[in-house]
Amino acid sequence: MTEIVIEAGHGERQYWKDLWQYRELFWFLAWRDVLVRYKQTVIGIAWSVIRPFLTMIVFTIIFGRLAGFPSEGAPYPILVFAAMLPWQMFSNAVTESSNSLVANASMLSKVYFPRLIVPTSAVIVSLIDFVISLGILGALMVWYGFVPEFRIIAFPLFLLLVIVAALGLGIWTAALNVKYRDFRYIVPFLVQFGMYVSPVGFSSSVIPDNWRLIYSLNPMVGAIDGFRWAILGGHTPLYLPGLGLSAILVTIIFWFALSYFRKTERIFADVI
Amino acid sequence: MTAVIKAENLSKKYVIGHAHQGQYLTFRELLIHSFRSGSRRLFHPFLASSGQPLTGLATTEELWALKDVSFEIKQGDRVGIIGRNGAGKTTLLKILSRITEPTEGKVSIKGRVASLLEVGTGFHPELTGRENIFLNGAVLGMSRAEIKSKFDQIVAFAEVERFLDTPVKRYSSGMYVRLAFAVAAHLEPEILVVDEVLAVGDLQFQKKCIDKMENAATEGKTILLVSHNMASILSISTKSMLMADGRLIEEGPSQEIVRRYQTSFLSKALGQTDLSNVERYGNGKAQFCSIVMKTLNHHGESLPFPETGCDIAFEMHIKAREEIHHVAVAVIVYDELGNRLTDVNTLIKGEALSLKAGQQAAVKFLLRNVRLKPDVYTVGLWLGVINLEDIDGIRYATSFKMEAKKEDILYTRPFPGVYACEFDYTVEDIR
Is the domain of B348 the same as that of B285? Predict the structure, then answer.
């Protein structure tokens, strides 16, 4: 029989073991969110297609036609969509997971399970939208007769970068949201703002070279550039210092978020 | 027998801020506070505020929900935890089920713990009964395979076969709690921690739940039960712990502890009881401020204590915060097992109460010829519109101990039953 000791300050000795034991809860919570998502809507899952598609059209018209930004040799809609894949994944995941703890408050105050499961499973849900968007991208490529290069197989690496970035910001804001509900308003604003400062509607090659590294302080810049590099191909080389900086920043944020979450987790039930 | 739960000096402190209506801080308040205390420290460096991080933000108060609680529970014990609201029972269960952490002390637990602090945790109204069984099972710590193997039993227990593929938001509240309890009842932990969930469903279903718990107990499982229902405490647990003000007052056989708990209500009986700080439910548009209880004989003369057949007068002061219109007032008498014996209600007389905001009223009831057996009874109060809203409800407003009337002693005490009916008898010779 296992013995657990609950003690002030370190009741978390078997945390990682618990996390493994409750692994199925990740899927159950994600499965619930997916099932519930489009209940009582008329067109259901089609919303997952329509939203990114319309955004892509608007961006193509504004940045591609009206502003006349360069398209790196690929059709502009594909240029936009290659960036929208990681961006939408990131923004959905961060929004969902930052709200997840508060949305599941009743569970938090009535049942024990490792709290990390809640914001993490919210990120898993966003992966489903990502897969749907990937399908749209495939359709666009067929429509434009665009054949990607072999390096497209590298995109999961950049996806990993997006996931870790989203997890980091997501679990951090989720924990902050428990105590300070201000983050309920801060996060949507940040996400909206981030869409314009990240190279979603335009290629980051429009940024002057001497600003490139500073621009890469936004960790999504490296991820989006990576996606474009893998999907669009072409002659633009990957801007490695920027990617490296993004990766380091993402790791630091993730690590910091995780330790903040673990530190505050034990008072969640008291303050939520 | 080895101890499966061993608690040593468990304490839990909450810091309550009085100025906050909502429970959570906003960032702004924290910023303003740190700015203020920072500037105060700057200008008055000798002000002794640096040691207390949250003063100045609001008036804060420390509340020890649990203080120095130590006990041991052996394998197979069935332990009831009783005490008034706010005595620390739920906090203790929350620590044992790892929902919250103790501020001081430690507890070691051997074996898998399943806690039922509320049935239906994690239920989602949009999902079907079938889907919710899986979800709720997972939340409570069951594996997928485990849920699958028990699925049919759960459905049969809850009696919802026909509605398995209906979203639970369309369930009646009875079906909902039955399903929720059924999932929880099929957990197979070594230690089961239960809080008051037995008060669900109809009588037949309650009996099923108690049977299920008794079965678990005969299988050698350890059970911890918190309840206000003395009947379920007595039928399930053999030992009990009595808590008050966050401390463990007494432990021992359930019979004794239950009796001790009931008589603890007597200290405040007769005379006026202030109701401003008692545990209550309802929306609070109006509240009971106090209750005065007097006992009278049939001639309206006051008696020192209630005795079988006396009249009991209750006078409640009600203060309205908002305007209330056409509401009913009720006085409810419970026996020591929590059974509702009588419910006198202004509505029965076709009367209702209307008050303007800020207005106060005294409502008087006279219960005539109260023929309850000598025993301990508790009195509850309720103010509201039947089936529509609870404005103010108090489960334990006051209590009284009925004494036997001298001339009645012969027939009331040794016989079972709660009601001492007046009767005559004759014997006739039949040819």
Answer: yes
